[in-house]
Amino acid sequence: MNGNPIPLRLEPHARAPATAAPSTWGNEVKRILCVRLDNLGDVLMTTPALHALRCSGPQRYLTLLASRAGVAAARHLDDIDAVIEYDAPWVKQNTPVDSRRDRAMIERLADCKFDAAVIFSVYSQNPLPAALLCHLAGIGKRLAHCRENPYGLLTDWVAETEPQHGTRHEVERQLALVAQVGASTPDRRMRFHVLPADAVSLSHRLSQLGAQQDAPYLVIHPGASAASRRYPAERLAEVAGRLAHIAGCRVFVTGGRDEAALTAQVSDAHADAIDLAGLLSLGELAALIRGASVLISNNSGPVHIASALGTPVVDLYALTNPQHMPWQTPHRVLYHDVPCRWCYRSVCPEGHHACLNGVAVDEVVAAACELMQARGADCEAIAVPLTTS
Question: Where are the beta strands (DSSP E) in the chain?
Fold first, then answer.
């Protein structure tokens, strides 16, 4: 645990010019710890706020405190200078709780001498454990959304009003947070930089599999971290077969090594489908998504990569939470409305999984065709009404 953050670049990269009023934190706030301890998609949805922090003061140096998933993304985020990995005991993770590791993290953060910390969280998370960590590390300025009075744990805070008074997209939520200290930007795009080496590596890997990227293709991602957010794999298999026939395109099926059985259910259904489970790095996956005519995915990390890269998305959106839909990219969000919406459960508490099971294959195919046609793909029009858009 001891030691400095892992630098992501040896020399400061070119700073974007400040376009907003100077931060109320002042120009003396240069070294900022950005705390985002949950999943890849959450980190990506925070990138506009990170960019706002970067632009709001001269010579800003941003360090990301993140889970393993966030650390993997950090090298693709141009506004992040360094990264520290931390399995926090107040965030869902598989590492056994060890107070010695937490004490070591306090010492490590103290050694970094940060001027300020911004704690990014969804409304269902309590920011105060992270605020206490930063307070004990001697970080003088600490900002977060908070539902209760934090007293001395936060020096700057925004009263939590979600979900009782409505919800915002996660991007808007985090932009509103940093605006509290004067950080803003007119560029509200999500960010993910595909490294040239990742694009070359992907091309080589696909060539070895007898597949090329020079013809239109689509990507299907059947996995998700929670069972409640997975559309039936057998239906995605039917979607893959029908779209390959209609559009005459290759289908790539993606997932982690632990999702191989799931991806096989989809890829084995059609000869033009190639199973890439466990074969791609995060950068290679992003390069694949960047070139796709459309991504069809459960609501998971690849949806947010697509949002950052401008790739059209068919998002099979389980109604477990309301604020993580695609952002500023062509998309169709498909679900079946249910009374038990916004349950925040990893497994459907009602046992029927109706919010996703109620979405017909015809709807998924029609949504994908519509997006592919808009991108210029040769795809027949299918007159099937969509659940929502």
Answer: 6-7, 31-36, 61-66, 82-85, 116-119, 141-146, 156-159, 217-221, 250-253, 273-275, 294-298, 313-316, 331-334
